[in-house]
Amino acid sequence: MRRPFALGAVLLPLVLPAATQAATRYVAPTGSGGACSSAAPCAVTTGINSASSGDEVVVAPGDYGSEATPLTDVLSPSSTNLDVHGVAGQPRPRIFTTADYGFSIGGSAAGSRISHLEVDAVRPASNPSGQVGFAIVAATAGSPAPIVVDDVVVRRIGGSGYACLVGGVGGNVVRSSTCWSEAVNAPALAAISGLWGPTNAVIRNSTIWAVGGNGLEAQSVATRPISLQLVNSIVHGAGYDIYVAKSGDPASVSATRSAYDPAKVVVAGGATGPVAASNLATPPQLVAPASGDLRQLATSPTIDAGLDDAANGLTALGGATLRTLGARTDIGADEWQPAPQATTAAATGVTSTGATLAGVAGTGRNAGTARFEYGTTTSYGASTPDAAITAGSDDPLPQTAAISGLSPATTYHYRLVVTTPAGTAQSTDGTFTTAAATGPGGGGGTGGGTGGGGGGGDTPPVAPRLSAVRAPATVRVGARATVRLRLNRAARVTVRLVRRSTGVRRNGRCVAPKPGRRGARCTRTTTVRTLSRSLPAGASSVALSRTFLGTRAGRYRLVVGATADGLVAPTATRSLRLLPRRR
């Protein structure tokens, strides 16, 4: 087993003066100057280190420095209530740094949030002394608002030192993030009171992995106690998984639904370590942990083995996958994504020139798209537009699409194609045959002849119509609900859960309120979840599960719509208030 690592003298985070008015700042790999605007982004050091209280810093995707030529300046956001993040839906920005403290969140940054970034700490062989990749060196007294680190990847590449360091009070949170290190004889994550403390922090749904040293080390000194909570987290070290030592004031590491080897836990000097009974001893199965790919394999025992809790956040590592896709939250930073499924259903509304294709999609509650491919052979050749499937939609998800312009009396092939971040699924081939063409209708006969044939042609489809839509006005978190309605014809009904919250208007947009962010009050609407059901004509109901309604109390709207044969019914909107769970 490897002994605990002691870091030499390192630079403390920079403390820079803050401006007085909150703003949105933009940085880019090729940025320069001090404007930090969307039209003229600045360098990452300027954009982050000069941010003022309440500022938002948008970090464009791309590489900042490289492993061969890393940044040398400390990135040190040090004002309160900052929001520093990459661009949602785009790759994480990669920041290569050789500074003693690569990315260091200072004690005056209470209430700040850092998300959707990657920090790669590199040190050349010529400078092998200790280096910290990512550090929370927060306030050490009082009751500051917590700093939240969410969806951040930290890699300690070679050299010596910690990937991650946590210190300070306030209940700071590292969530849906990874700390990976290949440094020899150094932990991936450390709480060392001799460097910074006291410490009170939560490591939630994160993966801590050391290739060459211990996984986690916590060491207290006099007047600087340590309290670390592991929740739904993976901890692994080449030496110890967890090392906790008391020297003076208490040192405690607790664990809930976390994965580590209890035989590789060392508790020294009267410290308090985790209790193995409430955790997972079976080793996690990850893609390539030795090289830093910490995603779960389908065989990993960590899947669906975590603790469901609203504090886990809405999304997993990457920011695009829901935190809970399966029966329960996974242990670790990522959420395993099941492969999509696609099933063919019978086509309906077949005429001489058109039809409505049908199928059933399965996304495992992931976001995705669905489309139909069709043609006169199994090579298909034509397709319908992609239909978006919202993350959180419960399987199965009926899909329909009306097509036209077909040839009469012709056999057509079709299939459903479903795509999610986990891959693409194609249903089996389905077929239908269009009706024969009919004439335009003959005129009356002459002389003693009989009248001609009656008028021909297709009957136009009837548009769907919703009526008698009823839903409860209030539902308590943890309960189910039902939407009742009536349809004039069979249709696909969609129910959207839309959250309403108070925001402030800035630059023509209604954005989330923050300290220092001023503007006229407005109402923000966010679609949280969507479900779809194929329902017959007449009275029907749609069950809303506890998962669909979620765990966040507040004001919502239920927006109910219906489609059939490419025709859309006017939507019906009902107000809904989710009340807090009974205690």
Automatic annotation (TrEMBL):
InterPro entries linked: Pectin_lyas_fold (IPR012334), Pectin_lyase_fold/virulence (IPR011050)
Signal peptide per UniProt: 1-22
Residue ranges, compositional bias (Gly residues): 439-458
Highest taxon, organism lineage: Bacteria
Compositional bias per record (Low complexity), positions renumbered to this chain: 428-438
Stretches for region Disordered: 424-464
Keywords, ordered alphabetically: Signal
Protein name: Fibronectin type-III domain-containing protein
